[in-house]
Design brief:
about 775 residues, single chain, two-stranded antiparallel sheet, mainly alpha, about 75% helix, elongated
Length: about 775
């Protein structure tokens, strides 16, 4: 009997289960919709609340300042529309008495106003200066309140005498109610203004407004006079000279100098009562006056003969600018005497801003220069020395940082050599003083700022030789390196590296040298005889002298600073190597000069590892390894003389290792073998390129140095015997190693593989 196949039917829930599922679904959807509705409702409520707060704030800011006026307007309107006509025609109402009462209230308000005016006047005399008292007397708010109350009083008196200009009593009484509200609001505004005038910031804002008004007015008058002068003297008249002539005939400078003197007195009083905010605001105001005036005189700078400086000149603007800077310096001295470091910082910051602004005001005769920039820079140096003398570290640090603003304003088109020289002198002085005070932050920051100045100048103008900032910076660093060696030897430089040789510093010495190389431009095709490496050669001479002087005067005795200086030299060598590998166009005839300068830098490295001296063997081994890498790259580009110079440098370092007094002789032997292994690597690389004579020369450097005792010479020979086997093992090892620096053996392996692949390719049919 055959069995029928089972046919599956769709599954159906029981009716009561389907009802429960439907109810559960309805509850779920209702819960979701309820949450959505509550969220929508809450959002609407929040939006309405925000709109209400915004509008109420608007109403409060614009209408809330006049509450009494609004009340008077409301009461007057209610009285005007609700009072019956019989009220005004009856004999009970005496409108003249109402008018005279309002006039009396206005007179009382004036008396109260003058009584309140004594308070800010007394404050101006005691805490500010007498000149600010005159500004208070001409304050617009006070004058407006006085005129308004006086007008209300006079009009009320006229109405009280029966002279109402034929206006109905209904109108006059409603107006008096409004006048009463206006009078009360005027007294309130006068009271608030009197409170504001007690604030020193408000007083200084009035001074700024008065000075800005006079400066702008004088500028407009001078421009108008210049246009008239051109009509009188013709269109060929020199506008710059006309502006200078009219400005010199004005009394504006004397007036502004009087104000700066008053502000100096203001600052002295503020410092005496320890009001730091007021003193800082005074300094900013004085600097702003100088900046506004110099900006107005931008188009009228004329250099006049100076008897004290027959080779230069001076500008009439300098009289005001010197006065401004002198007042800021006096405030800085007072602040330093009272140990108010915040004001000293503000003085340095304001002078730096004034210097940066003055560097944009130029005069062309015969070159474009900024004749006004030296004065504020000179006073900035004076304020920095004041902070140094007072031992205010933050004030000195602010002076250093302020130099960054000035340095970034340097321009290729504007000659500011005097300012730049002053900056380097100031920073060098701060760095020297910081060593006696053991202030690492100020020392490193000042040196970093010197490097920044050198880098910016190099990027904009290139290396300028004797007049270059880089030359002064190198000289300063050479003088500081001895002190830095003492600090590191005494343990004062833990986990800190001197900025000129710090590999993480973008503006280190090797970075500046790299920037000089980036400025190289190939000569024109029609004049290939021009030397494009002239600036690089001049810079190389100064850098070589710098590194050589350091190696001669500082016995590093194995300090980490020695490693970073050698690393800096090797980075400069890499710059030459890159030029030889990829020379610019039309420079083949000049590459011999690069080879010579490269040989100079290679010869510097052994100077840091002297025979009979003390140094770290691992530093010597790393230096030899890096020189071997340089030599391998030079062999690749067929620069044989510098490659042999690398071999000689390695031999000198290895010889210094043998005769070093740093540790026992066994360690010397091990380090010596590690160093001369690089010579064998170079020799094998030379053989790969069929340079047999150069390979023989390099191997001749591996012989043990003379002067070693016989028993030690035997130990050296035994260690050297296993050197070849070690190199062979390393060459056969194909494993990859994590290395932060290039390894000469790894590079030799790559050269051998490339040579083998080239040979296999030549034999392919």
């Amino acid at each position: 009997m055959m069995r029928r196949d089972h046919v599956s039917k769709p599954y159906r829930l029981a009716p009561h289960l389907r009802l429960k599922s439907f109810q559960r679904l309805v509850r779920l959807k209702w819960s979701i919709q309820r949450r959505k509705f509550l969220a929508w409702l809450l959002l609407r409520i929040l939006r309405a609340r925000h709109w209400t707060l915004t509008k109420s704030a608007f109403v409060g800011n614009h209408i809330g300042d006049y509450p009494a006026t609004l009340i008077g307007l409301t009461a007057g309107a209610a009285f005007f529309f609700s009072a019956p006509d019989e009220f005004f025609s009856s004999s009970e109402i005496k409108s003249s008495e109402v008018h005279l009462a309002v006039a009396g209230i206005a007179g009382t308000a004036l008396a109260l106003m003058f009584s309140l005016a004594i308070i800010p006047a007394q404050r101006a005399v005691d805490a500010f200066s007498t000149a600010i008292l005159r500004l208070y007397a001409r304050d617009k708010t006070i004058l407006l309140v006085f005129l308004l109350i006086s007008l209300i009083g006079v009009v009320s008196v006229l109405m009280g005498t029966g002279w109402a200009f034929s206006i109905s009593t209904r109108y006059t009484l409603a107006m008096q109610i409004l006048f009463l509200g206006i009078t009360l609001d005027a007294i309130r505004h006068f009271y608030l203004r009197a409170l504001q005038l007690l604030d020193p910031v408000v007083a200084l804002s009035l001074v700024r407004q008065a000075c800005a008004h006079q400066i702008n007015k004088m500028g407009s008058d001078v421009e108008r006079s210049v246009r008239v002068g051109k009509l009188l003297h013709g269109t060929d008249a020199d506008e710059r000279f006309l502006r200078f002539r009219y400005h010199s005939q004005s009394n504006l400078q004397v007036w502004l100098q009087q104000w700066t003197g008053q502000l100096n007195e203001f600052a002295a009083k503020s410092l005496s009562r320890r009001d730091t905010l007021a003193a800082k605001s005074v300094v900013r105001t004085i600097a702003e006056i100088g900046a506004r005036y110099t900006e107005m005189r931008r188009s009228s700078v004329i250099i006049l003969p100076d008897g004290m400086n027959p080779f230069g000149g001076t500008s009439d603007i300098s009289s005001l600018l010197d006065n401004v800077c002198e007042n800021i310096k006096q405030i800085c001295e007072d602040a330093a005497a009272q140990r108010n470091e915040a004001v000293v910082q503000q003085c340095c910051s304001s002078l730096s801003e004034l210097t940066a602004h003055s560097m944009t005001i130029t005069h062309v005769s015969p070159v474009t220069r900024a004749p006004l920039a030296f004065s504020p820079m000179f006073y900035l140096d004076a304020c920095a020395k004041i902070a140094l003398k007072a031992k205010m570290e933050d004030g000195v640090l602010e002076a250093i940082r302020s130099c960054g603003l000035i340095i970034r304003k340097m321009s290729k088109e504007i000659d500011t050599n005097d300012v730049e020289t002053q900056i380097i002198e100031m920073l060098n002085h701060i760095a020297l003083e910081s060593y006696s005070k053991k202030s690492t932050v100020n020392c490193f920051k000042s040196v970093e700022m010197m490097l920044l100045a050198s880098f910016c100048e190099t990027r904009m103008r290139g290396f300028r030789g004797a007049g270059s900032i880089t030359k002064d910076v190198l000289s300063s660093i050479s003088n500081l390196i001895v002190l830095e060696f003492v600090m590191e030897a005494t343990g004062e430089r833990r986990f800190q590296t001197f900025p000129p040789y710090n590999i993480t510093n973008e503006f280190r010495l090797s970075g500046i040298f790299t920037q000089i190389a980036k400025n190289i431009k190939p000569p024109p095709q029609d004049r290939p005889y021009l030397n494009p490496f002239r600036e690089l050669e001049d810079a190389a001479s100064d850098f070589v002298q710098h590194y050589t002087s350091i190696a001669d005067q500082v016995p590093f005795t194995g300090l980490l600073l020695e490693k970073w200086i050698v690393e800096s030299v090797l980075e400069c060598i890499d710059v030459f190597l890159q030029i030889l590998e990829t020379p610019p166009k039309n420079t083949d005839r000049h590459l011999d000069r690069i080879e010579d300068k490269l040989g100079w830098f290679i010869g510097i490295v052994p100077c840091f590892f002297k025979e009979g001296g003390r140094f770290a063997f691992d530093h010597a081994e790393e230096a030899c390894s890096r020189l071997a890498v340089v030599g391998l790259n030079l062999i690749k580009v067929e620069q044989l003389d510098p490659a042999l110079a690398c071999g000689r440098a390695i031999r000198s370092i290895a010889k210094a290792v043998v005769f070093s007094t740093s540790t026992r002789f066994q360690s010397n032997v091990h380090s010596y073998v590690s160093c001369v292994t690089n010579l064998e690597v170079l020799a094998r690389a030379a053989e790969v390129f069929d340079l047999t004579s150069e390979a023989s020369t390099l191997r001749s450097y591996i012989t043990p140095p003379e002067g070693v005792p016989q028993e030690r010479a035997t130990s050296l020979s035994e260690q050297l015997a296993g050197m070849h086997a070690h190199i062979d093992r390393e060459l056969r090892a194909e494993r990859r190693r994590l290395a932060l620096e290039p390894n000469p053996i790894v590079m030799l392996r790559q050269v051998l593989h490339e040579k083998k692949r080239a040979a296999d390719g030549n034999h392919t049919p």
